[in-house]
Amino acid sequence: MSLRFLSQKVAQAIDEELMSAQGGFSIDQLMELAGLSVAQAVQKSYDASTHPRVLVCVGPGNNGGDGLVAARHLTHFGYQPSIYYPKQSSKDLYQRLLIQCKNLNTPLVPEEQFASHVEQNTDVILDAVFGFSFHGEVREPFKKVIDIFETTGKPIVSVDIPSGWDVSTGPTKQVSFQPSVLISLTAPKACAQRFKGERHFLGGRFVPPSLAQKFDFVVPAYPQGDQVVELKQL
């Protein structure tokens, strides 16, 4: 099966259509479905008995929201997530997602403990910092996060694209880390062609066939009740 790799422009257009009057989705719904897909991909890649401690690194936008949703589901899946959220959004949606995690006693990692938490209290890092709309140079407080991604030996799972990569061309001179696992959402972005990690999943079991046809991309068959499909199996 031949997959299409989406440009930033097309990916944005698909999101807008999904949330239009014709698409019928709300941002809350798409974030919930994306976060559930991410949590399931983590579960398929790292068993909770051997890799229970998942550090979720949360960015300021929708990618970060996906990470907060994933953290909640991971708790219910038997993991012990923690959250590093250095630039919290004041928007109601993100505050409610954070409250949901706090109600499950998910700890927030203080900035001064971030580096030591990665090395001493983390089995897997979930990269939910920047999505496909990111461009430009990574600035603080997220430069510290990306620097850790570049140097750590802990496995990294990236949501949609590896944070800081160019969505079209992939690794840059400033950001070149390779996650162990990539979870593309809706359809793989162009930079995914430069992914060299161990497992590549697709999450997005919400795309109607008419939308896929309009934008000329493939919606693969998802197995049974799974919210993700591993692309190397296609």
TrEMBL record:
Subcellular localization: Cytoplasm; Mitochondrion
Annotated InterPro entries: YjeF_N_dom (IPR004443), YjeF_N_dom_sf (IPR036652), YJEFN_prot_NAXE-like (IPR032976)
GO cellular component: mitochondrion
Protein's job: Catalyzes the epimerization of the S- and R-forms of NAD(P)HX, a damaged form of NAD(P)H that is a result of enzymatic or heat-dependent hydration. This is a prerequisite for the S-specific NAD(P)H-hydrate dehydratase to allow the repair of both epimers of NAD(P)HX.
Protein name per its UniProtKB record: NAD(P)H-hydrate epimerase
EC number: 5.1.99.6
Cofactor: record remark: Binds 1 potassium ion per subunit.
Organism domain of life: Eukaryota
EC main group: isomerase
Residue ranges annotated for the YjeF N-terminal domain, each copy included: 11-219
HAMAP family: NADHX_epimerase (MF_01966)
Record's keyword terms, sorted: Cytoplasm, Isomerase, Metal-binding, Mitochondrion, NAD, NADP, Nucleotide-binding, Potassium
MF terms in GO: metal ion binding; NAD(P)HX epimerase activity; nucleotide binding
Cross-referenced PANTHER family: NAD(P)H-HYDRATE EPIMERASE
Residues the record lists as binding K(+): N63, D127, S163
Family according to the record: Belongs to the NnrE/AIBP family.
Reactions catalysed: (6R)-NADPHX = (6S)-NADPHX; (6R)-NADHX = (6S)-NADHX
